[in-house]
Amino acid sequence: MQELRLPLCRVTARKSTKAVEFLSKWLNDHEEFKSNSVCIGGDSYAGILIPGVALRFANENEQGMKPAINLMGYLVGNGVTNATIEHNSKIKFAHGMALIPDELHECISGLQQAQILSPHCAYASPRPTMMARRTSRSLEELLELETEPLPTLGCPTFAYLLALHVRKGTIGTWESCSSRLHYTYDIPSSIEFHLQLARKGNRSLIYSGDHDMIVLYVGTLEWIRSLNFRIVEEWRHWLLNNQVAGTYSDPRYFNLMTFATVKGAGHTVPEYKPPECFAMFRRWITGEPL
């Protein structure tokens, strides 16, 4: 296998440090759970965070952390991993879905990119496209671009406006996903984290909604293939209620990394296909084949 060499970003970032500190203190306060398996997961931008936190857990265990965290694996759904790969895969995906012809390369502005079959609706601020360009635009430019009207009742994105159990007066203007957070963007790619976790023998489930054009399964497949894992189980369908729910493949080289798609799901899978997502998770976490 050709070794992948990417710049290793700081795994000792504040978020992974806080996660280790919190879980360690919680286990000390709840000793009856110390032997329980721990699985962490997340969707969308968590594709940058989850592998780094999982790797921090694994490294701390190797260094003798007490209590040890019994990490059994991690999950990433529709996860941002490498922005360059994911952005460049959009044209390939759009062409394969017959959204653009051979001669045309800019014809996706009218699509609901979170789920290409859904009607085009506004996003609750900020739009994912604006978030994706945050590294190349100033905050002032981003705010000027946030002029799209709010989603209306009936749009899939209408629920993004809802905040549960937030009392009036406790915060300013509520945003479902703010671009105004103050943090250092220092992890351009989390591929190296996946590789290191694989070498340590950690199980993982990487899954994608096959109609998501924000973080596309095409790009996810590309970075997985860059790891050069040997595929033991070739592509096959997985079923729910005797119907095809998606496809999956098991590259079992260093570890048990499973890649799965969920048919008809957008960004993110639990939002669009909750029964299929739960069935996939339950089978994976219990060690059953999808």
TrEMBL record:
Q: What is the lineage of its organism?
A: Eukaryota, Viridiplantae, Streptophyta, Embryophyta, Tracheophyta
Q: Which domain of life is it from?
A: Eukaryota
Task: State the protein's name.
Answer: Uncharacterized protein
What Pfam families does its record include?
Peptidase_S10
Species name: Linum trigynum
Coiled-coil region: none
Q: Which family does it belong to?
A: Belongs to the peptidase S10 family.
Show the GO MF annotations.
Answer: acyltransferase activity, transferring groups other than amino-acyl groups; serine-type carboxypeptidase activity
- Name a single GO biological process: proteolysis
